[in-house]
Structures are given as structure tokens and as C-alpha cells.
Specification:
Length: 312
């Protein structure tokens, strides 16, 4: 019972992050399932089954808050579904001993990408209003869908930063569109896992509690995306994913690190992680201060222009 409550809380927290940042539900949930010894393919299948419900709830919530560009959803979601089915089939055919470390490496890479991307660069805002072309979104969706199914997460970490980097649509619409299109990816991946491993290795109670937690968090996240600093949240989530998957790899048969090596590694990661969060907070505050100064200067210029017109 305690494990189910914990999974429900994880589902809630993961969806809160995913709906606010456009990524990390699958990566966070799968990382936990791997950490407690779940088979890699079963872990990804469990998360994707839960995501059918959470992504539907998230998409509806983002739609209500006008956070979705439906053209982007169509152009990236269908190729993403194709990639996800292929990725699920690929992972289902890997041996358990090989799949767990491979998945941890994928998750570790995605965690590092999230940490570096949001800590160092924040959110780009140039090129707003320019169209996103199908020749860009289709290959991106195919890749992101494949990574998502094989890694137990990756749709957001691959898709969200790539579209954000283009700077062509507002960040809240990037996040809403990625969350809405993930519904198609979750369905395709789930079908792929049912074909590959069947249902006997999937604990549907775990699916249910992850789903309930995520559905409760979805509308809250859709509201938070307008208010929460993505830069800081990205640094927090990226570090957590790195720490957890480094732990899995160090304890795997591939490395089998000593206790001393593990301890030193955890301390080093924790120091880097803390530094990244502090830097993100500082940069966020600096950006807000700059925006405030620019707003004040703009208002003063407007008033000065009005006074000149009045005196003339």
C-alpha cells in the first residue's frame, strides 16, 4: 500500500513538472520504477499506459487555457506515434540485463540535457510568430517518439527544447502543444509494448495510481505554466534525473562500483546540481530585474512623448 501511495505522489509530481515544463513525466516516473527494480520494458509500458490518461487530461487543460497550437500537434504528433511504436518494439526485444543499463544511459543523457539547457540558456524568445515547418517537425517527432519509448521518457526533453530553440511560438504554447501531441505517442507506444511483451509483466495497479496522480496534477500544471520559472524548474528536475540514473548505472553489472566510488560520485553530482540551481535562480532574478528596468524606461519614454505632444 505504501508503494502505491508513493507512486501516486510521483505521478502527481511528475505531471506537475511535465505540464509546467513540457517534459519529464516519463523520465521521472520511469527512473523511479527502474530504481526499485522494475523490468525496463515493463517500466516504460507502465508509464506509457498511464500517460494515455495523463496526456489527455493535460491536453484538455492546456486547451482550456489556450496553450495549444493545433498545427504543431498534427505535424509532430503523427510522426511521433510512428517513432514510439518502433521504439517500443525495439526495447521489447532487448534482454533484461541489457535493457536496464541502456535505458539508464538514455535517461541520464536526457537529464544532463535538461540541466544544461535550462541552467545555461533559459528560454529563447526570438523569431516569435514565424511558422514551424513540417520538414522540421516530422523528423523531430519521429526521433522524439523513438527515444521516448526506448527510454521510458524523452518526448518532452527532445521535442520541447528543439521547438523552444526555434523561438517561433510562445513557450506556453510549445509546452501545451507537446503535452497534447504526447497523447498520440502514448497510445502508439502502449500498443507496441502489448505486441512486444504482452500484458503479463505490467502491474495495472501501478498504472492506475500513476494515472490518478497525473490527472489530478494536470489542470494545476496548465495554470502554473503561466507563472512558474521554467529555468529554475528545469535545473531542479535535470539534476534529480542525473543523480538517480547515475546510481542505477554505478550499481549495474556493467560498472559495479565500490561504495566509496558511489559516495564520491553522489557528492560531486549534488555539488554541481546545487550550483546549477543557484545559478538559475540568480539568472532568473537578473532577467526579471532587467525586464522591470526596461518596462520603467519604456513607460517614462511614453509619458515624455505624451508631454511633448501636449506642450506642442
Amino acid at each position: 500500500m505504501r508503494a502505491l501511495i508513493l507512486l501516486g505522489l510521483v505521478g502527481f509530481a511528475a505531471q506537475l513538472v511535465d505540464g509546467s515544463l513540457g517534459m519529464a513525466y516519463g523520465v521521472t516516473s520511469t527512473t523511479l520504477l527502474l530504481a526499485i527494480g522494475t523490468n525496463a520494458a515493463a517500466a516504460s509500458a507502465t508509464v506509457h499506459l498511464a500517460e494515455i490518461g495523463t496526456t489527455l487530461a493535460s491536453g484538455l487543460s492546456h486547451w482550456r487555457f489556450n496553450n495549444i497550437d493545433w498545427k504543431v500537434v498534427a505535424k509532430i504528433g503523427i510522426p511521433g506515434a510512428v517513432g514510439a511504436f518502433a521504439g517500443a518494439t525495439f526495447l521489447s526485444n532487448l534482454s533484461t540485463e541489457l535493457a536496464a543499463p541502456v535505458m539508464s544511459i538514455i535517461l541520464l543523457t536526457l537529464g544532463a540535457y535538461i540541466l544544461i539547457r535550462f541552467t545555461a540558456f533559459g528560454l529563447p524568445r526570438g523569431n516569435l510568430g514565424k511558422p514551424l515547418r513540417k520538414r522540421f517537425l516530422a523528423p523531430l517527432g519521429l526521433l522524439a517518439g523513438f527515444v521516448d519509448a526506448t527510454g521510458g521518457g524523452g518526448w518532452g526533453p527532445v521535442g520541447t527544447p528543439a521547438i523552444l530553440a526555434s523561438g517561433r511560438i510562445p513557450p506556453r504554447k510549445v509546452i501545451g502543444s507537446i503535452d497534447a501531441s504526447e497523447f498520440l505517442v502514448a497510445i502508439a507506444a502502449s500498443v507496441g509494448f502489448f505486441v512486444g511483451i504482452g500484458s503479463e509483466n505490467i502491474d495495472f495497479a501501478w498504472v492506475a495510481v500513476l494515472l490518478v496522480g497525473g490527472v489530478i496534477a494536470a489542470p494545476i500544471a496548465a495554470w502554473l505554466v503561466r507563472h512558474i520559472p521554467p529555468r529554475i524548474l528545469g535545473s531542479l528536475v535535470g539534476g534529480l534525473i542525473i543523480l538517480t540514473n547515475v546510481r542505477t548505472l554505478l550499481r549495474s553489472d556493467w560498472i559495479d562500483a565500490s561504495g566509496q566510488v558511489q559516495t564520491v560520485s553522489y557528492i560531486a553530482i549534488a555539488i554541481i546540481w546545487a550550483g546549477a540551481v543557484v545559478y538559475s535562480v540568480r539568472e532568473y532574478r537578473r532577467d526579471k530585474a532587467t525586464e522591470s528596468v526596461e518596462a520603467i524606461e519604456s513607460e517614462l519614454q511614453r509619458r515624455s512623448a505624451e508631454e511633448e505632444k501636449t506642450s506642442a
